[in-house]
Amino acid sequence: MVTYAALIIFFTYFYVAITFNPEEVADNMKKYGGFIPGIRAGRPTAEYLQYVLSRITAPGALYLALVALIPVFALVLSVPPRTSHSVELQFLLSWALVLILQSRSRANCSNVHMKVS
Fold it and tell me: If pLDDT is split at 50, 70 and 90, which confidence band does 61 have?
């Protein structure tokens, strides 16, 4: 499990390093007139983007690892799989349909203006 989480975190950083280049984004922003308020165009923008990227990638990688490990934890805790999803899903969908129809009929009733002749 630890190896699995470590690989997810590693490949998250690897993917971000390959796909997002702060210098290129900063150059494109400068070239097309974009800016970040309070940050000068060019190198300061690239440094700021790298700073934000490092702050965002760590919690994102941990979140991905946590989400990927949920099924593993479920198997370890021996949670039996449920097979009666279709009945529950049908009940929830019919309940939602009734709720939508009731809200529409109430909306239509409140919009009716009676004319007195």
Answer: very high
Integer Cα distance of 25 and 47 in angstroms: 11
Give one DSSP letter per residue of 56-73, joined into a string.
HHHHHHHHHHHHHHHHHH
| C-alpha to C-alpha distance for 25 and 66, rounded to whole angstroms | 30
The confidence score (pLDDT) of residue 35 equals: 83
Sketch the domain layout of the chain as residue ranges: 2-82
- How large is the greatest C-alpha to C-alpha distance in the chain, in angstroms? 80
Please answer whether residues 25 and 44 qualify as being in contact, where contact means their C-beta atoms are separated by less than 8 angstroms.
no
Residue 3 CB neighbours (<10 A): 7
Per-residue pLDDT of 16-31, as tens digits, reads: 989 888 889 888 888 8
**Token code pair at residue 63:** 């979140």
